Amino acid sequence: MDYIQKQKEKLISDLKLKGIKSEKVLSAMWKVPRERFIDQSILGQSYQDVALPIICGQTISQPYTVAFMTEKLDISSGMKVLEIGTGSGYQSCVLAELGANVYSVERIDELYFYSQNMFKELGYNITQKLGDGTFGWKDFAPYDRVMITAGAPETPLELLKQMKIHAKMIIPIGNKTLQIMTLIERNSETEFITTKFSQFRFVPLIGKQGWEN
To answer: Structural domain of residue 97, as residue ranges?
Structure first.
């Protein structure tokens, strides 16, 4: 068994110990090669449960964070999922492994093209857009699930509008350095149920309905 395989097994075991129960989510994370999304100089850290730097001053999320957010969305095959903040593309691939139809918005040109190349290389069919993610993506709305992978000062109103009835959104809300992970479920046209979890740390959500650049 090679080094990567051993590290992967340890990570999956650690995620279970930290409370991740969904075998579907763990299986998806096993299948997506995290080592492909990070710089070769830190390849040995690929399967450590930590966030790692990527290009453009951004990060690839800690695996526990990816697993936690994905598990809370309870994704079934065929669901339409809007992802705000493509980043490296790692989270997008985990969603795709679950059978979701992923629509991902990224505001940084370099990251957009980087992730686009990764999807092609790894064989994932993910629909992408370059633009301000705080406005969502009306063309394909409404969505079954919405995932925001950057810290927001509040929930962008436009994203709430693009949720189906009974849809779920996961979003970190707080200041620029620390956020509370928040699950929002749409029960009707006007009723939204909010559940708050523990604190997480994300890069800021930049956009007209987020933080100013």
So the answer is: 3-200
Q: Could you list the active site residues? A: 61
Question: 105-136, pLDDT tens digit by residue?
Answer: 999 999 999 999 999 999 999 999 999 999 99
Kindly state whether residue 119 falls inside one of the protein's structural domains.
yes
Environment class of residue 41 by beta-carbon count within 10 Å: exposed (0-12), middle (13-18) or buried (19+)?
Answer: exposed
CATH number reported for the structural domain that contains residue 49 in this entry: 3.40.50.150
Domain count of the chain?
1
Is position 80 within any domain? yes
> Which pTM value belongs to this model?
0.95
Q: Does residue 57 lie in a domain region?
A: yes
User: Cis omega before residue 142 (within 30°)?
Assistant: yes
Range 30-35, long-range pairs (CB < 8 A, 24+ positions): 31/97, 32/90, 32/93, 32/94, 32/97, 32/122, 33/122, 34/60, 34/63, 34/90, 35/4
